[in-house]
Amino acid sequence: GIDLAKTSESFESVDKPAFSSLKQIYIQLRSNRALVHLKLEMNHEALADSDEVLRHDSKNLKSLFRKGQAHQHMSQLQEALKQFQKALGVEPSNKEAADRIAEIRNLIAKQEEEAKKAQAEHEKHHQEHPHNEDHHVRFKTDVEEICFEEKVTEDKKFVVEEEKKAATTTQGRTKATFDAEKIKKATEKAKQVLDNPVHSANWPKTTYSFEKELSSFRNYPDELLAYLQKFTSGYIKGLYKTSELKYEVVGLILNALTDHTFRDDDEKKWTVGLFADLTECKNFHLVQMFMNKKDKQSLTKILQEAGSTHQDALNVCTKAFKISL
User: Fold this and answer.
1) How high is the pLDDT of residue 120?
2) Which of 37, 60, 96, 301 would bridge 46 by S-S if both were Cys, CB 3.0 to 4.6 A apart?
3) CB atoms < 10 A from the CB of 263, how many?
4) Are 105 and 77 in contact (CB under 8 A)?
5) Pure H helices in 57-174
6) How many other C-beta atoms are found inside a 10 Å radius of the C-beta of residue 239?
7) Is the pTM of this model over 0.70?
8) Is 116 helix (H, G, I), strand (E, B) or coil?
């Protein structure tokens, strides 16, 4: 698939003095969007934007700070502490970073104290209500693993594992659990979108709504393609007539069509028309500049397989995307 965060190759392929200011604009836009995501409590999205900025500028103070805030909002205190310490290293006089470090250290100390109390209460409870010899379970702290000294029932295993999660994570759930929940929500959202009748009244009226629905199919290329095929020709072009097209949108579309096997000539014609529509969207020239070598290789392969079913649109694509078939 296409890694939407990788844009460095695009900078290497252009004249650096001429486009250095363009890179700074891109960094500023991603930094600003990270702030918006924080305000909307979209912490994972804020992390992604901050990481992209830091990939280009590892000492970007605002992005270090925003990355620390996102981790703090998710109760990932140790990681948040690292980011604020990095921010303080960039600007030692930054009082806000120093205050955050002190605040997080207090929170970590408080959590450790609460964990000790919980451990003591658990051990006290175990002493007062010992298991019989056949079902003996020994509780361990977060630096040890739960050890089953004898065979226990599946129900007791489940209970112990839940105790371990609560004792060793600040949110009482592991990353795997969180990821599973996130995938489940995305799947439900994707199904809900696809189940909507194919009628213009149900189509997103804003680019924000469209991009939100499009992102719900990020890990489901076939469903993403089915979603895009709901719309008539010219819909995306009209949607981005006044709003700026984003590089991520083009990347998602490439992901959906890379390695796709076309069913018939109509689907091939629709595909070429879709990319031709993208070339007429606002801000397309900037998106095209950020496309890296891998993006253009994928697009070339897609258009080659689509063939000459829509020659005029194909010519538009090769010229605008600056590729040759």
Assistant:
1) 82
2) 37
3) 8
4) no
5) 61-73, 77-90, 95-128, 154-168
6) 22
7) no
8) helix
Contact 19, 289 (CB under 8 A): yes
Residue 124's pLDDT is 78
Q: 114 with 75: CB under 8 angstroms?
A: no
For 103, the token pair is 């605040």
pLDDT of residue 86: 94
* Cβ 57 vs Cβ 27: under 8 Å: yes
Cα dist from 211 to 85, 196, 240, 241, whole Å: 34, 17, 11, 15
Single-letter code of the amino acid located at 186: A
Contact 168, 140 (CB under 8 A): no
Q: How far apart are CA 196 and CA 209, in angstroms?
A: 14
Q: So what's the pLDDT on residue 64? A: 95
DSSP state letters, 229-270: TTSPTTHHHHHTSSSPP-HHHHHHHHHHHTTPPP-SHHHHHH
d(CA 17, CA 213): 38
- Asked if 79 and 71 count as a contact pair (C-beta separation under 8 A), the reply is yes
pLDDT beneath 70: ranges in the chain: 1-19, 126, 129-202, 308-309
Beta bridge partners of 148: 137
Helices 207-215 and 221-228 meet at what angle, rounded to 10? 150
Contact 244, 283 (CB under 8 A): yes
SS3 295: helix
Phi first, then psi, for residue 148 (nearest 5°) are -95, 110
Q: Is 311 left (phi over 0), alpha (psi -120 to 50) or beta?
A: alpha
Which pLDDT score, from 0 to 100, does residue 30 have? Answer: 92
Give the Cα separation of 243 and 259 in Å (integer): 30
CB 292 within 8 A of CB 6: yes
Tell me the two tokens of residue 46.
Answer: 């804020």
What DSSP state is assigned to residue 143? T
